[in-house]
């Protein structure tokens, strides 16, 4: 099994299980407002366009892992850009 594949599957399952009306609990911030689901469109400029549903409070690293689960690319090799700005983990 590839490195990180188990972690990616667990993250995808937890996102599907949580849904749009849950409260996320962070050990440093306490209870936050309910996260809303958004859809992010990712294009690799080779003809593959992927639509990812994620929460608004997900980190860029979480988003990369969700993209990796659908595309088959390792999450640490994915670079997310908007125009010329590169999003950091």
TrEMBL record:
Keywords: Ubl conjugation pathway. The keyword Electron transport does not apply. The keyword tRNA processing does not apply. Coiled coil: none annotated. PANTHER family: UBIQUITIN-LIKE PROTEIN 5. This is Ubiquitin-like protein 5. It comes from Neotoma lepida (Desert woodrat).
């Amino acid at each position: 099994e590839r490195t990180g594949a188990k972690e990616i599957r667990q993250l995808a399952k937890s996102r599907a299980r949580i849904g749009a009306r849950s409260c996320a609990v962070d050990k440093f911030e306490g209870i936050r407002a309910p996260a809303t689901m958004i859809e992010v469109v990712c294009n690799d400029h080779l003809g593959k366009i992927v639509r990812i549903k994620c929460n608004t409070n997900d980190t860029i690293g979480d988003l990369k892992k969700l993209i990796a689960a659908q595309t088959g690319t390792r999450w640490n090799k994915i670079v997310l850009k908007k125009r010329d700005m590169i999003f950091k983990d």
